[in-house]
Amino acid sequence: MTRGYDAVPDRERDRLLRYLEAVVAVRPAPVHTTVAFNAVYFGYDLGGDGYGGSPLCLDDFPVITFGERAPVLPVGAMVCVATGAEPLYAEIVHKEGAHPEVDALGDVPGWVSGAPAGAEGPGRPGNDAEPRRKELLVPDLHAFGPALSLSPAQLHRLRTRRRWINEDGHVVVDMCYPSPEAARRDDLTAYADHLLTTAQKQLLSPFVPVSLAALVGGTLGDDLRAGLLGLLETVRGVLESSAVLSTWGHYAMPRTSLADCRRDTGPLGGDDLRSLAAEVARTATPGRRRFGLATPVTVYTAIGPRLRRVPGATERLRGVGYATAVCRANIALADSVREDSDQGLFENGSRITLDDPFEGGGVWRSHHPGDAEAPGDPLAPAGRGWTSTLPASSEPEPEAELDPVDLPLADDVSLGAGELLRDDAQEAVWRAPLRLTHLIGGWFPLPSCAVRDLHRSHGARPKVRLELHHLVEESDEAEAAHDVVAELGHNSGRLTGIAWPRDFFPGLMLELRRRRGDPVIHLATTRLEERVQVGDRETGHCYDSRVLTREDAPGSDRHGDSAAGLGPRQLVMRTVRRCGLLTLDGHALMDRSVLPSAVYGRRPARSQAAALEAAVAELLAERFLEPALGSRDAWGQPHFPARDREPTIPLVGYCPVRRRVIRPWGDTDTEPGAAGLLASQFVSGHLRRLRPGCLPSDGQRAAFREHCRRLGKADGWELPDGYTFVTEHTRGR
After folding, report:
1. β-bridge mates for residue 561, sequence order
2. Statement to judge: residues 291 and 360 lie in one domain
3. Domain that holds residue 298
4. Cα(231)–Cα(41) distance, rounded to whole angstroms?
5. Which residues are paired to 557 by β-bridges?
6. Could you say which DSSP state residue 42 is in?
7. Per the domain annotation, does 531 fall within a domain?
8. What is the pLDDT of residues 542-552, one digit of tens each?
9. What is the pLDDT of residues 169-218, one digit of tens each?
């Protein structure tokens, strides 16, 4: 399942589907893909205890305070809501924008619809490096079972005071994003970032049934991220494949509940939802005039605030009921657009489209006359409200004979990030990939723990002995050990004057080890079981596939980094690898339509464009590149795989050969899903409850500590009371 939905055998898909359908049936709110992942990974009890019996450590949850700033908290995050007395432990099951300029009637200023986080006004996106956005969070305050939930009377007092939660039991905060790019990430990527940073302890806990580190076979950041995204994609695919569930974006709910809602004649029932759809369809339609032409009218309506106008709806919008009502209303509008219009164009002349899926529970755009606009997918969020306030783009400049540009390295989040493996009284051990700039400049960064210890014991610019342990067929003793200089700052530093071995390359994984007080640093590479071919590079050592793709492109080596003198084929490969959308396993995919301008920095001459197109055709035919389909969002950002309700675009992808590590989850001599899978199955190490009065043996305690060490948790984990540890084994032999 870490490899995605398509890699899972049908039998296992069915097992997961049955459980998730049961989860959706018992949860009181629509179940987001990330919430469904939590249920599977952490163990959600269907009998009423929720996460009460799960291995989650409540003390690790981030604390949020009503009306104040908060770190990035995606849907699915486990949080502690600050109160004056008992803390509220909750799971975020829904969130949406709460822009102050959206009024209580649901009317939205045009520029707000689709605006990026931190936007200051029409056409003013803001220049804050850490943008903020006011967001409404809907917490499930009963997700952790009765033992960790407040009584109805206690919740009523908190809602009445409106100090820690608002009158509906929701939390409004100023969400602070580390960058504009982080604010634009999709839900699954944002949640993966959250689990790998803020919630890493609970993700890698050895108390979960099978930790992610055990599933991917290591603790490397890229492996964990790829495996986590694969699991999320599997859960999403299973939810979307269900015949008994209906989905709106990432939210799933039973079809039976939607049918019951349509038959309901009470507040927010079928009659009210049909009235809402009709109102949105006619809100932009001008009144009849005897003379002259009607002026074009555009109206933006936010679903969440609009539902509060429905008589008698107040109680149904409290707690998680608000998330249910918002999803039902959006589904009703989407059904109306699909069934009663021609690509959003209704008989009254208005065109209805979904413009912003996040702000106010979803912003729908009504425009009249609708036939004046080009048709498209009405359910693909276009953000026309915001884009209509931006200055018109200029015309392309005339063609000219241009030279290839030197492409900068793409700013990929966490690309090449190092990992601290150990930091105690004896030694510090860290691991990081070699970057192109390190190779050219002969330097390598030091972690803050090594910087502080070196600075304290040896001063600001000490000489350090660097010993290289690099197993190759022919070893050069001159490269095995030499003196380097450590340039140390307050909390950062680097080794300079390094003579890298001739076969070192960008992306090569390096492990450095230094004992406390010792002026010697040991640097080692890790051998693979067999040599592999990755693009143009053959290696027998561990590497970071993303860094290798980006920085080992044509024109880049230890002597420099330039596109000068490259032919069309090399220019295409360099551009795709440097500028393409980088996946976690080292693939790079690029919008084929912008490839020529990316190579030359602007629109190329016809002869250059023809040469590049011929080079692309050759590379595709020879399988050095592969075609793919992606999508483009309202901001022009490409995505892969293609997202629902976004226009598809052709991509061209660089696909490096990557050796797959076959883990013994089943019989490796059979294909997934074959009968041989049942004959032999690998069981990961896990906890088992003991009978009352029994204690685990010392051997099992030691085995659990070793299990924690392999998961990167070598900091004193002990077995919880009442449990023993079952070591990994093979079942069926």
Report:
1. 556
2. yes
3. 261-387
4. 9
5. 560
6. I
7. yes
8. 888 889 999 99
9. 999 999 999 888 889 889 999 999 999 999 988 898 888 888 898 888 87
